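Hi, here's the filled form for the chain we discussed.

Project: internal
Contact: R.S.
Residues: 79
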Amino acid sequence: MRTFTVHLQRDHDPAVEEMPLEAQSLAEASKMATQFAGEVLRDYPQELWDCGFWRVVVRDEAGAVLCAIEIVGSTPTVH
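And the returned structure, exactly as it came back:
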């Protein structure tokens, strides 16, 4: 088992939520990060629209970024 950390960043807010996780591989950690992003979207659907941008990052024990999911919420401008 390897230790990874999933970080959730909202828009340009410097505050980051972290969730440690144990996984066999980067592939498994990436899958868990995707599930985490889906759960956050499900549980807080309005929050993405309020801030517009989320980034879910998987880091290794040294803090290196291994992969990232970027989620952007935008609405069309009505003229």
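Let me know if anything looks off before we file it.
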